[in-house]
Write a sequence for this structure.
């Protein structure tokens, strides 16, 4: 029997599903305080530390392969240098993405999105995929990511939650994959945030936690709009923001937040 994916382009239904499915804590770039960010080791570490949802950053290689990396350049988190978009995936895959963090992670690689999907499927994990295009590649990055998800994401598993600071990326996702839920990422709570969300048909708001006040969290919760706050590494702070109405906390150290929640903090 063929199992169909239950997906909808209805934003209110997407919000209801997210309100139901999102966890209290999502591992940021895997578990970035405990393992080199955006590597498979970091994803495994997040699960080991109690967070089965992860947030990762995805951009394109020169030959159009979606892979995990935060920065535009390779220098900070690999032994390569210069813009990542200048290299083909074969060359990116040879770089060491672990030693900068700790010698114990030497040999960790920059994972492709397909490799990530395989790991998530084997471990029954879920995903907030941040579309993090290299400059000038917003729509193309989205097209490649959506195509990869349509070919490789397990049938029957809810789509990942796509988010981005890049409005051109979200607009492209809205136009070609309306049934994949989208989150608007904001560093500052611009006055027109609600209009932008409506235009881009976003199901969730992903906000710098320093911008979230009690009124915003209470009113969004009352309206059924999921708010995810990044990047919170202090347990008591994370627990307090959840109590005030945040749906999820995105954290480099999931156990700090989970520990505070378990302690009733
Ligand atoms: O998706 C939340 C957060 O990851 C956004 O900021 O710079 O850590 O990708 P950044
Ligand atoms: Mg990110």
């Amino acid at each position: 029997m063929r199992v169909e994916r239950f997906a909808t382009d209805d934003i209110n239904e997407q919000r209801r599903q997210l309100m139901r499915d999102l966890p209290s804590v999502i591992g940021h770039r895997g578990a970035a305080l405990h393992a080199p960010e955006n590597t498979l080791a970091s994803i495994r570490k997040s699960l080991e530390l109690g967070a089965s949802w992860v947030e990762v950053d995805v951009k394109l290689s020169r030959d159009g392969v979606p892979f995990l990396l935060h920065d535009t350049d390779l220098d900070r988190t690999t032994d390569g240098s210069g813009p990542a978009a200048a290299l083909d995936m074969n060359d990116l895959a040879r770089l060491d993405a672990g030693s900068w963090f700790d010698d114990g992670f030497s040999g960790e690689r920059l994972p492709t999105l397909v490799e990530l999907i395989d790991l998530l499927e084997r471990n029954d994990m879920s995903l907030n995929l941040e579309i993090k295009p290299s400059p000038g590649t917003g729509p193309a990055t989205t097209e490649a990511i959506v195509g990869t998800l349509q070919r490789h994401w397990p049938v029957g598993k809810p789509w990942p939650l796509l988010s981005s600071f890049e409005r051109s990326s979200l607009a492209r996702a809205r136009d070609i994959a309306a049934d994949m839920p989208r989150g608007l990422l904001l560093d500052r709570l611009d006055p027109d945030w609600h209009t932008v969300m409506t235009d881009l048909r976003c199901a969730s708001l992903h906000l710098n936690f320093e911008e979230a006040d009690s009124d915003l969290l209470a009113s969004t919760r009352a309206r059924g709009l999921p708010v995810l706050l990044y990047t919170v590494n202090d347990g008591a702070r994370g627990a307090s923001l959840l109590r005030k109405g945040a749906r999820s906390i995105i954290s480099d150290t999931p156990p700090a937040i989970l520990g505070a929640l378990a302690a009733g903090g």
